[in-house]
Amino acid sequence: MGVATHGDAPGRRGTYRGDVEPRSLVRRAGLVAVAALAAAALAACTPLVSPRPTVLPTRGATSVPSPTPTPTASGQVLPTPSPSATDSRDCGGAPVTVSDTAGATVLTGDCPTVTIAGAGIEVDLTAARAGTVAINGDRNRVEAASVAALTIGGQSNEADVATLGAITINGDRNQVDASGAAGAVTVSGNDNRVTAASLGAVSDAGSRNTVATR
To answer: Which of the four, 55, 88, 102, 211, has the lowest number of CB atoms within 10 Å?
Structure first.
């Protein structure tokens, strides 16, 4: 009796391959499905990061301080103007104090007392009825049609007045010019100059002062 070998039994060999290959394909498909599910789960757990917007500062944006009001002796408030601004106000029969810096002020109406306490101010009183004008600051300029009395306690001030009453100068390097008549002159400072069409009594207790008529 002969013994059959694997080569002699092709039917059995074919049946073995058919059993193994389908199982391998099924196993590979299962691994692929598991990997896909894991990738999907990982993607669902990862937060989305949105890009941050870049904010640039606004150019040319500057704040402008508002003017600081200046109270007068009677409670009247004169705003402090900028160097290029002109403040115009009616005194209304009340004392007025001007304490700006490098500004221009025009006063009109009845001004019984005007006190200038700032520096580098131009005060126009040509349309006002001025009583007593006191200049206590430095480098101020006053122009008026008529002043009953002028007192200067600061330095390097100028006053141009058409007609002027009594003049008292306690500071230095001030100049007073009256195109018309002026009253009595009292000087105790130095290097001051007073000129007028006519002068009253003169008292000079300072040094290097000039008090003269035209």
So the answer is: 55
**CA torsion sign, 13 to 17 to 20 to 23?**
negative
What's the CA gap between 123 and 106, in Å, rounded? 6
10 Å CB burial of residue 128 (0-12, 13-18, 19+) is buried
Q: How many whole angstroms separate alpha carbon 214 and alpha carbon 199?
A: 10
According to the 3-state scheme, what is the secondary structure of 132-179? EEEECCECCEEEEEEEEEEEECCCCCEEEEEEEEEEEECCCCCEEEEE
Contact at 8 Å (CB) between 136 and 109? no
Q: Write the CB contacts of 116 (distance below 8 Å, at least 6 apart in sequence).
A: 97, 98, 99, 123, 133, 134, 135, 136, 137, 140, 142
Give the per-residue pLDDT at 86.
Answer: 79
The DSSP-derived string for 79-90 is E---TT-EEEEE
Judge whether 110 and 93 are in contact, CB under 8 Å. yes
Q: Which pLDDT does position 15 carry in this prediction? A: 44
31-74 pLDDT tens trace? 655 556 655 555 555 545 455 544 444 444 444 444 454 454 44
- Residue-wise pLDDT for 69-90, tens only, equals 445 444 454 544 444 467 899 9
d(CA 89, CA 1): 144
Q: Enter the pTM of the model.
A: 0.61
Computed from CA positions of residues 79, 80, 86, 90, in that sequence, does the dihedral angle turn out positive or negative?
positive
Residue with tokens 């200049």: 135
